[in-house]
Design goal:
Blueprint lengths: L12 E4 L5 E2 L7 E4 L4 E14 L5 E14 L3 E5 L18 E6 L2 H10 L13 E6 L4 E6 L1 E7 L3 H13 L2
Antiparallel strand pairs: 1-7, 2-4, 3-4, 4-5, 5-10, 6-9, 7-8, 8-9
Length: about 170
């Protein structure tokens, strides 16, 4: 008799992504714009300076508005939890405002498992990535193949003009 043992998946780990900026702690101003084909996230961005603060890290300065585009985005979550709840949630405990990737994502495994109900031969998802953004009053998570981030100077209308142009080109 052959006995098969299910192997336990690797535990989730969180890695901070260095994209040259991070969300502003005071007023993150996160906005999500999503269609069936496109997903865009914007937020007020800060970047490190060359000056070191007495608290051990660099002083931060305004970097404009970050415009993040996600390619092949399968699903998003936006809203809860905020920064006051992070310490009580295992995934976000010990984290602060920033941009992260969740490795060995339980969420990706769950989506793959759900897909197998209709498509039993669905292979494990090795392309998708689980991104996590932590803002002052909210958080954002998504499963996507990749993301790009650009800093947009000037008024916020410039950001929406870029989003509109890209959505209309679909």
């Amino acid at each position: 008799m052959l006995v098969r043992y299910a192997t336990m998946p690797e535990p989730e780990t969180i890695s901070e992504l260095d994209l040259g900026c991070r969300p502003e702690a005071a007023v993150s101003g996160a906005v999500l714009v999503q269609t069936e084909h496109s997903t865009f996230l914007t937020f007020n961005a800060m970047r490190p300076t060359d000056r070191m603060s007495p608290y051990g890290g660099p002083y931060m300065e305004d970097a404009g508005v970050a415009l993040v585009e996600f390619k092949m985005c399968a699903i998003t979550k936006f809203g809860y939890p905020n920064d006051e709840a992070w310490s009580g949630i295992p995934r976000t405990r010990g984290l602060s405002y920033g941009i992260f990737e969740v490795k060995n994502s339980e969420w990706i495994r769950e989506l793959t498992s759900l897909n197998r109900h209709s498509f039993p031969n669905t292979p494990d998802d090795v392309r998708s990535r689980h991104f996590l953004f932590l803002f002052h009053d909210s958080s954002f998570e998504c499963i996507a193949d990749e993301m790009t981030l650009e800093l947009v100077p000037g008024p916020y209308a410039n950001v929406f003009a870029r989003i509109t142009e890209r959505v209309l080109a679909e």
